[in-house]
Amino acid sequence: MTQTEIPAPATREATLPRPAWKVLLIRPEAMTFVLLVLAVIAGSQLSEYFLDLSYILKSFTLSAEFAIVALVLTMVIIAGEIDLSPAANMALSACLFAYALDAGAPMPLAICIGLVAGVAMGAVNAALIIGMQLPSIIVTIGTLTLYRGLAQVIAGDKSIRVPDTFIGINDILLLGVPLPVLLFTLLSVVLGLVLATTVFGRQIYLIGTNEVAARHAGVRSQRIKMWLFLLMGLVSAIAGLMTASRLGSVRYDLGLGGELQMVLMAMLGGTYIFGGRGSILGTFLAAWLLVIVMTGMIVANWMPAYQLCVLGVLLIVSIIATNLIYSRTQR
Amino acid sequence: MLKKSTLIGLAAGFAMLASAAVAEPLKIVYIGKNTGNPYFDSITAGFEDACKSLGCEFQFLAPATAEATSQIPIIEAQIQRGVDVIGISPNSADALNQVLDAAKAAGILVLTVNGDVVGNESRRAATILPVDFTKTGPNQVELMGSMIGYSGEIAILSATTEAPDQNVWIAAMADTLKNDAKYKDMKLVATVYGDDQPEKSTTEMEALLANYPDLKGVIAPTTVGIAAAAQVVQSRGIADKVKVTGLGLPSEMRDFIKDGTVEAFQLWSPYNEGWLAVHFALGVLDGSVKNEVGGTFEVPNLGTITINENNSMNTQAELTKFDKTNIDDFSF
Amino acid sequence: MTGWRHILLRREAGIAVMIVLFCLSVGAVKPQFLTLDSLRIILLLVPLIMIGAMGQMLVLLARHVDLSIGSMLGLTAMASGMMFRYMPEVWWPVGFLVSVGLGAVLGLFNGALVTVFRLPAIIVTLGTLNLYRGLTFIMSDAKQIDRQYVPSALKSMSVTSPIFGIPWIIFISFGVAILTYWFVMHTRIGRQIYALGSNPVAAPLRGISVTKVTLVVFAISGALSGLAGILYASRWGFVNPSNTGSGFELQVIAAVVIGGVSINGGVGTVAGTVLGVVLLGCVSAALPLLGIPGTTQSAIYGAVILLALMIDRLVRMQGMARSTRAAVP
């Protein structure tokens, strides 16, 4: 019996690693950067008053508080959770701070009260989401309404003024750059390094990709998530105090709708809503993108109707692009 | 090669000549509380017509929502654009402090229209109010009284708890009820807040009817509130038992007047506020009007306007009463 | 399976009990709460949310979410409103066709983005929430449709009907609930929604066309938002480009979640959702009656949502313990 030759298995080269330039350029952050450049060009075409660096920096300070929180929110989303309560947290922390000042507390004590309140709110979120295993989106919708409501109870519909010495953080310029913008950039660098280079950062990505597998690999996912929610609480409180300084007064509706802007910044920066992917760089660029787009439209005196349409389309286009990039780069 | 300084000097010279020859029209901007609000459309019409007749550039802007800080980016943009006059119906008395200061520092004339930044008057040049707000409360009480025979339980349905205009009026109403003997048989049993939202105003009105079965009248000094209250009364068919009045827009209340649900209500002409604002602003900028308390000046169609305490002006002396006889005369 | 059914039955019963307890306690303080008049008020608060909740329930069952329902409500209401204003010679019920039809188209657009581009529904509908609201402003030139332009026949649907004087709008909303029940229980696509939501990966293997089912749920959500849109004009008598539908999605999601529909798909019933809507309606009606200022009301809503979630979790944990105990011989 002649043995039929078993054909040698066709050898295939292991797929070549993607060329370095592709890895660097074809990623969601690059798409955000491209959109940013396009937005700057569009803005300058729409209005002659747009291309003024100090004006753009000034406009950024109006969103800087949200941008700072969005950085931490990015980490939370990468870890597979979400937090929609930070804006309400900002308001409640700021209200407690202002209330304490009004009641005669010295400034350092009042600031402490505000910060502790923020962390406490983050702890409540953590307890419900991690402790009781409730879905984070619904819990934080619930706490968002609760915190906002409590802020309303404390402050009523009144504005509580803050002392003049506390006002004007956005007017402080270092090298021509407003302080909030510097803080945002600084925090981006710090968190970016943490997320990209430390073990803690790696673990966040692992948890977001597959929490069960991560836990089996020894990652203490509950612990890490708890820290993230507490950090969210702290950062929200700081953002709340910054807003109080910028506006000169505190109201229960401080930062109303802010959660939407923060999620928008994270999404536009290529963060994947279901976790496991995203970067601080992306959110950093996206914050600038959002500010440029909004400022460009406002200084061109566009009415809200068109602004809303542009925002909606921007979000959809960017999410399509992000998805395409991810599906192309996964083999 | 011409030296750079010579070039600059020449350019400056040309620019001065050019600007002397062609005076740039003044740029006026009016920032409403939010878009989609018909009340501010009337004020805008007044601005537009006045600018057309006086020759200035006008633009109406408004944020998507009426929340306290939503006007800030718009004001910043106008400073950047170098406008000459900003008219604004502020969403908040305090939140705009920093940005209004910046506008003032940039040389922009800031006017508040239809409502003031109470407590921060120094941050704006003047305010245009429709009527003397201290008289609104008593006028409304009188109108209510005339409809219920000056006796019975009444309630107030207001906007938000901290709305400065409404609170001034309500305080005056309570005062009038307490101190004026004419209204001694009228009792104010409740003040509720509909937050200027139709749904909330409706549920608050229904709660009033349930809680106070002997209620004879409701005063709603807010256009959203009075429309909601009238709707409730109309759908329950109790127009002869419970009288609704307040401050309303003719366009929204027309149906209710015609079918008898509401006998009469009051307001003023928002259009006139825009008209007056432009005339005042242009007058101040070209020197023909002095922005001083006690001063007066003439405005076509409005007559003599007096500048009152806190640099405030009123477009008309008394509230206009709308009822079956005149409801069709108005287009706002 | 029996273990789960017991849990579900208990869930609906739990909400019903909460409703009864709540009404009795409010009634003890304010007897007016327990009158027919009060019932009428509650029922009138409910229709729009009920209709929206049915659509949202289907979307959540399929493991998606639709945040654009408020903007769809606004846009469709404005479309009909503009027809009423600028084409008054058209027979007014055509408004229903306009709103529902446009709603279905808007919903299909959402669904298409989700299926064709495989985008997360939460982001897509966040984008369309803004886009549709912007279109509403553009279409109406930022002007509201005043009361005199809305046909009084339409408005009277929220006031009365020949049947015991109960407004048509209440029949319509409960009718939609009943139709939804029939749809999920007795049609193939309805059952497929549950299957898709519980296990999206296995669904195609079971012959379920993921694209078709997804498009259907989003189209229904849109169409129901359209129905809610024209009924908004009926209930409140006007359409405003800024306010109409604003915040609607939050109320609907709160009601649906309280009613036991799971964010993770595959779990939820019409009965539960109806009860969730009714509970929120009772709470909304009771608060002004109790004189609780508006400032505390939102805090209470937040607390109610959290409470419902926690109770749900505790019940599920108990149920799981029970069924594992039953499984072990």
Number of helices of chain C: 13
Average of per-residue pLDDT values of chain B: 85
Uncertain spans of chain C: none
- Distance from first to last alpha carbon of chain C: 16 Å
**Which percent bin holds the helix content of chain C?**
over 70%
Characterise the protein shown here.
The complex is a heterotrimer of chains A (331), B (332) and C (329). In chain A, 70% of the residues lie in helices and 2% in strands. Chain A has helices spanning 20-25, 28-46, 53-78, 86-102, 107-131, 136-155, 179-197, 199-209, 211-216, 221-247, 258-268, 280-299, 304-329, and strands spanning 160-161, 173-174, 177-178, 249-250. In chain A, helix 3 (53-78) packs across helix 11, helix 5 runs antiparallel to helix 6 and helix 11 (258-268) crosses helix 12 (280-299). The mean pLDDT of chain A is 88. Chain B has helices spanning 4-21, 38-54, 72-81, 97-105, 133-148, 164-179, 198-211, 223-236, 250-258, 270-286; strands at 27-31, 57-61, 85-88, 109-113, 126-129, 152-158, 186-193, 215-220, 243-246, 264-267, 296-299, 303-306, 312-314, 320-323. In chain B, helix 2 packs parallel to helix 10 and helix 3 packs parallel to helix 4 (97-105). Chain B is elongated. Chain C is globular and about 60 Å long. Chains A and C meet through helix 6, helix 11 and helix 13 of A and helix 6, helix 11 and helix 13 of C.
Short description, anyone?
The complex is a heterotrimer of chains A (331), B (332) and C (329). Chain A has 331 residues and is mainly α. Chain A has helices at 20-25, 28-46, 53-78, 86-102, 107-131, 136-155, 179-197, 199-209, 211-216, 221-247, 258-268, 280-299, 304-329; strands at 160-161, 173-174, 177-178, 249-250.
What topology does this entry show?
The complex is a heterotrimer of chains A (331), B (332) and C (329).
Chain A: H1 20-25, H2 28-46, H3 53-78, H4 86-102, H5 107-131, H6 136-155, E1 160-161, E2 173-174, E3 177-178, H7 179-197, H8 199-209, H9 211-216, H10 221-247, E4 249-250, H11 258-268, H12 280-299, H13 304-329
Antiparallel strand pairs in A: 1-4, 2-3
Helix pairs in contact in A: 2-12, 3-7, 3-8, 3-10, 3-11, 3-12, 4-5, 4-6, 4-10, 5-6, 5-10, 7-8, 11-12
Chain B: H1 4-21, E1 27-31, H2 38-54, E2 57-61, H3 72-81, E3 85-88, H4 97-105, E4 109-113, E5 126-129, H5 133-148, E6 152-158, H6 164-179, E7 186-193, H7 198-211, E8 215-220, H8 223-236, E9 243-246, H9 250-258, E10 264-267, H10 270-286, E11 296-299, E12 303-306, E13 312-314, E14 320-323
Parallel strand pairs in B: 1-2, 1-3, 3-4, 4-5, 5-13, 6-7, 6-8, 8-9
Antiparallel strand pairs in B: 10-14, 11-12
Helix pairs in contact in B: 2-10, 3-4, 5-6, 7-8
Chain C: H1 2-29, H2 36-45, H3 47-61, H4 69-86, H5 94-116, H6 121-140, H7 152-156, H8 168-186, H9 188-198, H10 210-236, H11 248-258, H12 270-289, H13 294-327
